Amino acid sequence: MAGAWLNLTPEHGRPELVASVLMSMAAQYWHGLDALRNSGAPLQEIRGGSGLLDMPPMAQWMADALGQDIVLHDERDASLLGAVDLALGHQDTTPIKGGARYRAKEASLHARVVETWSAIAEQINSRL
């Protein structure tokens, strides 16, 4: 799979490139959440682990971008543990206690993520 920046001009610098990568990441996550919601799967909370979400400003940004609260695990292998739970058919709906919770606050960022995903999907579909 290949990636590209569309409509890139010499006026675009490092800040714009970093912002576009983050926005694309958030759009991909939002697409996954949207697919879960459309499948009828109950979505009570988003649980996150380590990585970018270890930085409180990034965790808050992602909660705002997704328009949904995020609860962080202290567990370093949260993604692996979540995949194992899904594979085993576990449906643990117990809210996590003690983990940091980031509440979605900035609705305009979420709207931009949805708009970004729509533009990405349109570009992909036009090339298929």
TrEMBL record:
One of its GO terms (molecular function) is kinase activity. It holds the Pfam family FGGY_C. Transmembrane segments: none annotated. Residues 2-87 form the Carbohydrate kinase FGGY C-terminal domain. This is Carbohydrate kinase FGGY C-terminal domain-containing protein. It comes from Sulfobacillus harzensis. Signal peptide: none annotated. It comes from the Bacteria. GO terms for biological process: carbohydrate metabolic process.
